[in-house]
Specification:
With about 160 residues, this protein is of the alpha/beta class.
């Protein structure tokens, strides 16, 4: 069976570290352009238009800034139900009309939730206006890329 994986980077790159998911996906697109059946997508600040992309994927990896209560640049990976639980426990502090849990709930209701899911969360240092990540996030980007590629290799083995 052929499986398609969507690697979705989300965040707002004009709010410094909030754009970390977008920064990681941009780096992955540049460094890993030949990965078969893997789509890298800049999901920006989320919208309902992403539901088709999510529902058409067999596997989903989301990379985003996350409140991990850790040092800036700390990374934690949440898999499958652990991802769902983490997202469900987050306070609705999003400035966006749509949250990731909203999109996953729609996919679940339409019976198209990707079978394998992961959230690679990265602790931000600053969410202030600015177009460059902080040094801690700049250092975390290559590690998040490695984690993503390792997960892709594991899922496609």
């Amino acid at each position: 069976m052929v499986t398609k994986t969507l690697v979705l980077g989300i965040g707002n790159p004009i709010m410094q570290d909030d754009g970390v998911g977008v920064y990681v996906v941009q780096r992955l697109k540049a460094d890993q352009p030949e990965l078969p059946l893997v789509d890298f997508l800049d999901g920006g600040t989320l919208s309902f238009s992403l539901i088709g992309e999510i529902e058409s994927a067999d596997h989903l990896i989301v990379i985003d800034a996350a409140q991990l209560d850790g040092e800036p640049g700390a990374i934690r990976t949440f898999l499958n139900e652990e991802m769902d639980q983490f997202l469900g426990q987050q306070k609705n502090s999003s400035v966006h009309d749509v949250t990731l849990i909203d999109l996953l709930s729609i996919a679940l209701l339409s019976d198209r939730l990707p079978a394998k899911r992961a959230l690679i969360g990265i602790q931000p240092a600053s969410l202030e206006l600015g177009t460059e990540p902080t040094p801690a996030i700049e250092m975390a980007i290559p590690k998040a890329c490695r984690i993503t590629v390792e997960l892709l290799e594991k899922w496609n083995a």
